[in-house]
Design brief:
Layout (H helix, E strand, L loop, with lengths): L60 E2 L2 E2 L9 H12 L4 E4 L14 H4 L3 E8 L60 E7 H15 L11 H13 L6 E8 L19 H4 L30 E5 L4 E5 L6 E9 L2 E6 L4 H11 L1 H6 L13 H6 L5 E5 L4 E4 L4 E6 L3 E8 L5 H13 L8 H22 L7 H7 L7 H20 L6 E3 L22 E5 L23 E5 L3 H12 L2 H19 L5 H10 L42 E4 L21 E7 L7 E10 L5 E7 L6 E4 L2 H19 L12 H5 L4 H8 L8 H9 L2 H11 L16
Helix pairs in contact: 10-11, 10-12, 10-14, 12-13, 13-14
């Protein structure tokens, strides 16, 4: 993707009301109210000329070209992955779509082409490589080369921040720093029609040969371009409409929101750059914000010699560029494994510029000869992109180039799962360079892992029915031992383990990170801007300020007991996630419950779940059980339900006796997650109860209910069919855990053709675990004589037994064989 630096804030550009000011300055000059000085390119005759005898065209190899079949072209990410092994060693490649791919360009609509204006920037092509540092005072104001005209402003231009930041205005600050960086000044506003006419006028004038207009070849333009860049003799200034956001001209592709006939195949295609970043399989789909230029395409309107200088994509992402119309673009690419070599060569040959501005390459204003790169041993390749073709760049592949004439292209980023390792390297490099990130890498990484867990879980559930979703199968392909996604999560785990270990903190300083820690604001290291989605270090002395684990000791000088480390997941949890992605069934069940459970919690806060479930009970959706509850819960005098009728139908009149048999009380963990207002959840608690068999709902079977430790997530509730241990259900909620069992019973009934009873409309999770059985409650309460589980005891003390009985009797009806009601509260 192309990016440019700008010397003046675009918000300060005044509207250009000129009409086709592509003529020499003697025509229509008085109609131009733009703020450009009279000496700007648009107001001057083109007097610089082509010197073919001095051409310096680079002699470098071509990058590969791919021509997918119509079938291959249907799946964008699959095709990119297919050609990656062949193309990535070059850093760049060209893709020629099938002949049937001819998307109409919406920019050619009259309302846009003739009436919608866009801003431009003025590029000094002769200064892209050969210029003096801004701070260095030249011996003479006159330079030792021909000058056909002088610009009305100083050659010193303010630089720019990275593309996502607002660039400083060239003349709005009196600070010396504002004049220290070279950049591109703002130019005229044009319509596409006006720009095309000016670009044609410029090119014909520049390549005029003895008063004869000459249509130069790409190779001739290329030789002249590098002559200007490497050994300039004249000022050559051009316009470029670069980094044009969606709100300026919009996309060149039609979108689903636009009612245009005959464009459906292009609107929905993955090759439509509006769709590409969020395709299934691109981890950018887990970025919540529409980051302009990353997830939302940018347009580039070029003319002859307008340039995009050497750079890599933000976060070392892939980029895909589509050439909508016009003359060719010439690209140069360096593979990612040669990125450091390119940087060293440029530092060697441009030492003064790098001494003055160490992050020179971040400014995107410096061009450099591919010929010199090749001479210095850097691998560099060439691409000529024509109208209707794509150019794909790979992670950390430096690329640069220029336009051969009036054209328009569009570009956006994409991140296949294979990018994750490159993205991790990028954020580590940014941290070393104290460079801000554009997105949270860990959010994308975990988002991909969650989606993979969901897909693996769905596939394991649907394997018996033979229904396999293509998207789920795609995610499965990234998992397994040594899978691409598995490796990325494991590498991140090892990194966290090493950094936590280096801190030397004991377990008491580790705390659970709140789920919404960075939901409403960016959390980044105060020192290096590292993203803090996965872990953060803080101190009581500075609430709101955090450090990454690498800079934890630099945050303050307080005593260790005042400092803490927040973890979204423990190392055990992340290890479990790795095993889940490898296919370990127990870990997959645990993480499936977390992923599916957390998505439900996003819609309804956990604190309101009790209220919502009580509302369900008011509507009569409780599970009407015939339960024989004895004070001695160890008794097993259970009256089992008779076998179903020969028809196998489960009717509302059927009932079953259930006795909750405690097998282990476990022990208490004193934390807010280990109890609710209605129950205490001891770690290691285990009980047995009979319920309809999930494999054969016509009979009753024993289920083991237990409470496990899910680390920072608190208790994990698990229910297992005793006769078939592989049939187990896990969730962070006892209620949801048993609802999963009930749903499985209903699904089996449906698959076997068994009508389901109205009683299958709901179930009581706490009741089924035994947390509402009086003797079990009494035994568990005895484990906390000092009432340290505050939430539970406060609620119990505030509610008298009489009012509680009244509340329960008015909200649910559970029929007991003893003939009395017992309250049912949901977690």
């Amino acid at each position: 993707m192309e990016h440019l630096s700008v010397a003046q804030s675009e918000s300060e550009i005044k509207e250009d009301t000129s009409m086709k000011n592509h003529h020499p300055p003697d025509k229509d000059k008085d109609k131009d109210t733009n703020m450009e000085p009279p000496s700007s390119p648009r107001h001057r005759m083109v007097v610089a000329r082509w010197l073919p005898a001095e051409a310096q065209r680079p002699n470098i190899d071509e990058a590969p070209v791919f021509s997918p079949s119509s079938e291959e072209f249907e799946d964008t990410l699959a095709y990119i992955e297919k050609i990656r092994p062949l193309a990535e060693p070059y850093g760049i490649c060209r893709i020629i779509p099938p002949s049937t791919w001819k998307p109409p360009c919406r920019l050619k609509e009259k309302s846009i082409w003739e009436h919608t204006k866009f801003p431009t920037r003025i590029q000094n092509v002769d200064l892209l490589q050969n210029r003096e540092p801004m701070k260095k005072k030249p011996k003479s104001k006159k330079r030792k080369r021909r000058r056909n005209s002088k610009m009305g402003s100083s050659r010193r231009r303010s630089g720019s921040s990275p593309p996502s930041a607002e660039p400083p205005a060239a003349s709005s600050s009196s600070s010396p720093e504002a004049e220290e960086k070279f950049g591109f000044n703002s130019g005229s506003d044009f319509t596409l029609e006006e720009f095309g006419e000016y670009a044609l006028h410029f090119k014909h004038s520049y390549f005029e040969k003895k008063d004869t207009k000459w249509n130069p070849s790409v190779e001739e333009i290329e030789g002249e371009y590098w002559r200007i860049v490497e050994t300039p003799t004249d000022e050559v200034e051009v316009y470029y409409g670069a980094d044009l956001e969606n709100g300026v001209l919009g996309s060149g592709f039609y979108k689903r929101t636009e009612t245009v006939t005959g464009v459906d195949q292009y609107v929905d295609s993955g090759w439509n750059l509006n769709n590409l970043p969020r395709l299934p399989g691109s981890v950018l789909s887990f970025e919540a914000c529409d980051i302009s230029g990353v997830l939302v395409p940018w347009l580039y309107v070029g003319m002859c010699f307008s340039s995009f200088c050497w750079h890599v994509e933000d976060h070392h992402l892939y980029s895909l560029n589509y050439h909508h119309f016009g003359e060719p673009k010439v690209w140069y690419g360096v593979p990612g494994n040669n990125a450091t070599a390119l940087e060293k060569v440029m530092r060697k040959h441009l030492p003064d510029l790098f001494d003055e501005q160490p992050d020179l390459l971040h400014g995107l204003v410096t061009q450099f000869s591919p010929s010199i790169l090749k001479e210095e041993g850097v691998e560099v390749y060439r691409v000529v992109q024509n109208e209707g073709e794509y150019v794909l760049t790979f992670p950390r592949a430096y690329h640069a180039g220029f336009n051969c004439g009036f054209n328009c292209a569009e570009a956006v980023n994409v991140a296949p799962v294979g990018w994750l390792a490159h993205g991790q390297n990028a954020v580590e490099l940014y941290s070393k360079e104290t460079r801000k990130t554009s997105l949270s890498h860990d959010k994308l990484l975990l988002g991909a892992a969650y989606e993979a867990v969901k897909s693996l879980w769905e596939l394991s559930s649907s394997s018996s029915s033979g229904k396999e979703n293509a998207t789920s199968l795609r995610w499965k392909s990234f998992c397994g031992k040594k899978g691409t996604l598995t490796n990325a999560i494991e590498a991140r785990l090892r990194m966290e383990e090493e950094r936590i270990g280096a801190l030397g903190r004991d377990a008491s300083s580790l705390a659970k990170m709140e789920k919404d820690f960075d939901s409403n604001c960016e959390r980044e290291c105060f020192s290096c801007f590292y993203d803090l989605h996965l872990s953060a270090s803080g101190c009581k002395c500075s609430p709101g300020d955090y450090a990454c684990l690498k800079h934890s000791e630099d945050l303050c000088s307080c005593e260790e007991e005042d400092r803490f480390v927040l973890l979204r997941y423990t190392m055990d949890e992340l290890s479990s996630l790795v095993r889940a992605l490898e296919g370990e069934s127990d870990d997959l069940k645990i993480w499936a419950s977390k992923v599916l459970g957390s998505r439900e919690e996003d819609e309804t806060k956990k604190t309101s779940s009790v209220i919502s479930e009580e509302k369900k009970l008011k509507k009569g959706s409780s599970f009407d059980l015939n339960i024989d509850l004895e004070l001695d819960c160890h008794e097993e005098d259970v009256k089992e339900e008779e076998e179903a009728s020969t028809s196998g139908e489960l009717t509302a009149s059927e009932s079953f006796g259930a006795s909750i048999e405690p097998m282990s009380l476990g022990f208490l963990i004193f934390g807010k997650l280990w109890c609710s207002k209605h129950a205490i959840f001891p770690k290691g608690f285990k009980s047995r109860v009979k319920f309809y068999n999930v494999l054969d709902p016509t009979r009753m079977s024993n289920y083991i209910s237990e409470v496990l430790d899910a680390g920072l997530m608190g208790p994990l509730f698990k229910v297992t069919l005793e006769e078939s241990p592989d049939e187990s259900f896990c969730n962070v909620s006892a209620q949801q855990c048993w609802e999963m069992v009930l749903q499985r019973v209903k699904d089996t009934c449906t698959s076997l053709g068994l009508p389901t009873s109205p009683r299958f409309e709901g179930i009581n999770g706490l009741q089924m675990f035994g947390f509402l059985s009086p003797s079990i409650v009494e035994a568990i309460e005895a484990l906390d004589p000092n009432h340290r589980l505050v939430e539970y005891w406060n609620h119990k003390n505030q509610t008298s037994s009489e009012s509680k009985d009244h509340f329960i009797s008015s909200n649910c009806s559970v029929s007991l064989t003893k003939g009395k009601l017992f309250g049912v509260d949901l977690m």
